[in-house]
């Protein structure tokens, strides 16, 4: 993801990127720190942002309860945007699913299939877990039984998420396929240009979309 973000920055004349690990890093005039690393890197980056009052954006997955406790403490000092997927496509997918579930008058069984490249360490994906949480929190009355999540690691696939709803009337599928990491990099940079105008606190990517920051 770091390379994808750097490539996007090169296309923008008014956007600059730097590694906060470098010796002479200047924390002044920084819009945000973007983290797509690993749980340990997440902890280090969040601590740095809290100490230097820099807005924090992270798409790192595989976070534990301890990481979330650290977020709870840090959001009292800086704006924080946590999102396992920063694709506008996934946001639109969830909107379509919501419209579908509101429109039906019967309960449905749900299965989620997610496919990623073989180097992805966490399973299920953070996006799949986010969709499960979304369904459980807002549409549990329409979901029959437990949500079945299947994960596959194949080749160099950037990300496929398929959500299947099954009832006596038939099967309805929703799917999003990421063709490159650029979609996530673009979403993260759009958020970075706006997050320093947000109040202190924790935000989701949906908050970013809904406010059109």
Describe this structure in words.
By secondary structure, the chain is of the alpha/beta class. It has 2 domains: about 1-85 and about 180-210, Rossmann fold; about 90-175, Dihydrodipicolinate Reductase, domain 2 (2-Layer Sandwich). Helices cover about 40% and strands about 20% of the residues. The chain contains 7 helices and 8 strands, in the order αβαβαβαβαβββαβα. The chain has helices spanning about 1-10, 40-50, 65-75, 90-105, 125-140, 180-190, 205-210, and strands at about 35, 55-60, 80, 110-115, 150-155, 160-165, 170-175, 200-205. The strands form 2 sheets. It has a 4-stranded parallel sheet with strand order 1-2-3-8, sandwiched between helices. Strands 5-4-6-7 form a 4-stranded mixed sheet, with helices on one face. β4 (about 110-115), α5 (about 125-140) and β5 (about 150-155) form a beta-alpha-beta unit. The radius of gyration is 18 Å and the shape is globular. The protein starts with a helix and ends with a helix.
Name given to the CATH architecture of the largest domain: 3-Layer(aba) Sandwich
In total, the number of domains comes to: 2
User: What is the CATH topology of the largest domain?
Assistant: Rossmann fold
The total count of strands amounts to: 8
Percentage of residues assigned to helices: 25-40%
Assign the CATH class of the largest domain.
Answer: Alpha Beta
